[in-house]
TrEMBL record:
It is an enzyme of class 3 (hydrolase). Its EC number is 3.4.24.-. The keyword Plastid does not apply. It is a multi-pass membrane protein. SUPFAM superfamilies: PDZ domain-like. Residues 119-191, 238-307 form the PDZ domain. GO terms for molecular function: metal ion binding; metalloendopeptidase activity. One of its GO terms (cellular component) is membrane. Pfam families: PDZ_6, Peptidase_M50. This is Zinc metalloprotease. Keywords: Hydrolase, Membrane, Metal-binding, Metalloprotease, Protease, Transmembrane, Transmembrane helix, Zinc. It comes from the Bacteria. The chain crosses the membrane at residues 102-126, 414-435, 460-479.
Amino acid sequence: MSQLMTLALFLLAFAAILGPLVALHEWGHYIVARLCGVKVLTYSIGFGPKLASWTSKKTGTDYRISALPLGGYVKMLDEREGEVAEEEKHLAFNNQHPLKKIAIVAAGPLMNFIIAIALFWVLFLVPSEQLNTRIGSVLPQTPAATVNLPKGDKIVAVDGHNVQTWEEINYRLADRMGETGTVSLALQKVAASPEGLEGSANDSTSEKSSSVYAQANEVEVPIDNFMQGTQSGKDTLTSLGVLPWQPQIEPVIGQLSEDGAAIRQGMKVGDKIVAINNEPVEDWLVVTRIIRDNPETLLNFTVLRENEQGESREVQLQIMPQGKKGSAGQQYGQIGAGIAPIEIVVPDDYKTMVSYDPITAIGKAFAKTGQLATMTLNSMGKMITGKVGLDNLSGPITIAVISKQSFEISWEQVLANAGIISLSLAVLNLLPIPVLDGGHLLYYLIELIRGRPVSERMQIIGFNLGFLFLLGFMILAITNDFSRYF
């Protein structure tokens, strides 16, 4: 695929997800302004030069699509921005009661919250078979290994919050990013039940498992600068050192890439990797983890190779994994080797069917929206205090990359990413920064309390400061994007 075609796909995916979210955000402002009796002059998706437009003969509103798709705006009749005819002054935004101004401004972020809740609700309605929260393995030299977390136990709560899926565990752990202390895990011992006894179930999940659960016990797992420093770029579970069930696969090479490091250094199809840097390995997933964690680092591979007579001998190979950039911009290693295709069967004791009725699903959607909103604000606070590096900021390039990847995975992933982006738009817009909706809300709350508007001079000063802050924020986010992907 040509680079031009790839770029076009990124832009299309970006527009397909962000475009409707921006349009609905601005529609929130627009429809509430109309309901409050304010004349809307322009409804624009995007900023900058106009690409296409249509003017309503009934309302006089200019509906347009503009060149820069990083937002949008609703321009209302306002005496501060131009002369207003005497007969239309009652339609001007600046002449409205502060409560009306607050309603109009808050409608945009509120619309994004509603969209997020609706998308999460749809996803919770879709039954899905998932891996349950039983611990499949504990990685060596990780926080989980220091407390000897038992393989096979089921994680039922993180820091006092009940969890039913690995996604929920991920979110709870992500909320601890940059922190030092302990993560509290509630574990349940799992024992085989009498033959024919069905697994336990609760109001919202039914588990396909022949297991019974004992009383949960609390384990405190120590963390230090979690997911930062040497753990930077790793996912939450790898950073903690606890993984779901994974298949046990012999590390026998079944395929080699013609331009990979492995074939260049003499690795052959049929080689069985038995050690890396003199450390024995028995599982392909362990091999891939070591390779991924060591980009541009020379590794010593010990492989067993059979000759034509069927006799095996050890062969030493030195291979340096090529550095690649992942979906989140993190660097990982790759040698261009893989196993032969195999059929993977997940044991019943590690499966669960997650299914919610519409009422339970809406409750879960509200809870997830609240949790992610809190986590977003928490992450911002950690960036300000220095607990989390500013390199965690992401910009439009990251949104485009994630959007394209979601379309390649499934429609559920598209909705999930759209919900998260919509929620992020809502939270960011509510920050009390002039230029953003939150800054305007602050001004109108002050007006409501004082009984008179904030002076125009103070609003202009705030606007200029807010614009500079937002510009710096965007430059930093885009710089981070470029460092991740280019």
